[in-house]
From TrEMBL:
It comes from Parerythrobacter jejuensis. One of its GO terms (biological process) is trans-translation-dependent protein tagging. Belongs to the SmpB family. This is SsrA-binding protein. The keyword RNA-binding applies. GO terms for cellular component: cytosol. Required for rescue of stalled ribosomes mediated by trans-translation. Binds to transfer-messenger RNA (tmRNA), required for stable association of tmRNA with ribosomes. tmRNA and SmpB together mimic tRNA shape, replacing the anticodon stem-loop with SmpB. tmRNA is encoded by the ssrA gene; the 2 termini fold to resemble tRNA(Ala) and it encodes a 'tag peptide', a short internal open reading frame. During trans-translation Ala-aminoacylated tmRNA acts like a tRNA, entering the A-site of stalled ribosomes, displacing the stalled mRNA. GO terms for molecular function: RNA binding. Keywords: Cytoplasm, RNA-binding. It is found in: Cytoplasm. Its main location: cytoplasm. Transmembrane segments: none annotated. Gene3D superfamilies: 2.40.280.10.
Length: 160
């Protein structure tokens, strides 16, 4: 089965977004991965509570993991509540994992979680970006390009 194009990811409800990642990294490719979650984690996500600002993904022993993502404990959970910052397994196809391993090891790229969302079938998904880190000069150029595009659109809109 072919992987859908990044533009066709079916995002119904976005729970958490890593807005800083697009500034700090040049995202070259995006992957949609499932998450293995416990029951109280799903309930916390449905309540809209999660943070992936300081998180990252890594490949360990042939499996992909989401590290340092914060899904706070469920407020009505009992003794079976989950640990907020535990490593969570990402569900990817073997070929996708091999492709990610090759890019990370050979090209020195990074796996950055971009967002956590629920798709149309109600499954929690993570959008992972295969990215290269930007240096300070690259960040300044990125901001300059972004501002110019915004100004250009404003000028064209005003002139009709």
């Amino acid at each position: 089965m072919a992987r859908p194009k990044p533009e066709t990811f079916d995002k119904q409800k976005t729970v958490a977004e890593n807005r800083r990642a697009r500034f700090d990294y040049a995202v070259e490719d995006k992957f949609e991965a499932g998450l293995t979650l416990q029951g109280t984690e799903v309930k916390s996500l449905r309540a809209g509570e999660a943070s992936i600002a300081e998180s990252y993904a890594e490949i360990r022993d042939g499996q992909a993991w989401l590290i340092n993502a914060n899904i706070p404990e469920f407020s009505h959970g009992n003794r079976f509540n989950h640990e907020p910052r535990r490593p969570r397994k990402l569900l990817l196809h073997r070929r996708e994992i091999e492709r990610l391993v090759g890019a990370v090891e050979r090209k020195g790229m990074t796996l950055v979680p971009l967002s956590i969302y629920f798709n149309s079938t109600g499954r929690a998904k993570v959008e992972i970006g295969l990215a290269k880190g930007r240096k300070a000069q690259d960040k300044r150029e990125y901001v300059k390009d972004r501002d110019w595009k915004r100004d250009k659109a404003r000028i064209l809109r005003d002139r009709g």
